[in-house]
Every structure is written in structure tokens, then in C-alpha cells.
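ugh ok fine here u go
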Amino acid sequence: VATSLNEAFDIARASDGGEEVFIIGGAFVYEQTIDLVDRLYITFVDGHFDGNKFFPVIDPKKWREVSRRRKESDEQNKYNMDFVVFNRVTAQGL
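structure:
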């Protein structure tokens, strides 16, 4: 059990398969970690939902979309979805 985000990252990186660490949040966890990561895997769902917590805004000056896959609604999924990967823009990438 980790008592801080830094400790959690250290444990994850030291684990087998720790080359890529995934953060499964809530809004507060995402807010705390978005500046610590280099890649975002985001699912956009076409729908309107009640709620007052959201993923932080993805600033296009900081993030570049590198892939997008569309999944149309069907018998199992009521809503259209886009699976999008963003990479952090680096000084070399400007």
C-alpha cells in the first residue's frame, strides 16, 4: 500500500511490467497527476450525463492527439465512443 502518489509511482515502476503505469482516477486523482504523465488514453462518450466531476481540460498546447478509434453504438453499447491517445508535447516537438 502506498501512502503518496510518488510512492505509488515508485512501486509501480519497480514492478514487473512497470514500463507503462496506468492511473485509474477519480477527478481529484486525475487533477493531481495530469502534469506527471506523458501519455493520456481517453474515452470520449457521446452522451449527456448528470455529474459535477470531470477529467481536466486537455490543453492542445500541451497535448497532441496521436490516434483515434471510433466505436459506433450497437446492441451492447448505447453510445458512440472515441478512444483517443494523446502524447505530451515536448520542447523538441514544437
